[in-house]
Amino acid sequence: MPARIYQIPKNAMQSGKARTDTWVLEFVPTEAKKPDPLTGWAGSGNTPEQVSLKFPTQDAAKAYADREGIDYTVVNTPPKTLKIQTYADNFR
Questions:
Q1: With contact defined as beta carbons under 8 Å apart, do 52 and 27 qualify?
Q2: Beta pairing, strands 23-27 & 3-7
Q3: Phi, psi of 65 (to 5 degrees)
Q4: What are the residue ranges in the chain where pLDDT is below 50?
Q5: Prediction pTM value
Q6: Which residue intervals of the chain are DSSP H helices?
Q7: Do residues 1 and 48 touch, judged by C-beta distance below 8 A?
Q8: Residue 89 CA to chain centroid, in angstroms?
Q9: Is residue 48 classed as helix, strand or coil in its secondary structure?
């Protein structure tokens, strides 16, 4: 069952970098979600999709996946680009 390993991104409402150093191993969904006939909520019978394992480093997540025989792909975080400007640049 394939999985993906990625680093938790910073929330849009978050200015600091708290909790962004955690790496997550999540299993890739194997079937599409469908609405439940009784409640209308979206769901599937894919139980491993609900599992989300957190690790302190990328190497720890890789070591766990290798030890358990899980195929994985690492999704690297995109480079952070900062737009440096001063307050006066807002009025030009």
A1: no
A2: antiparallel
A3: -65, -40
A4: none
A5: 0.75
A6: 58-68
A7: yes
A8: 35
A9: helix
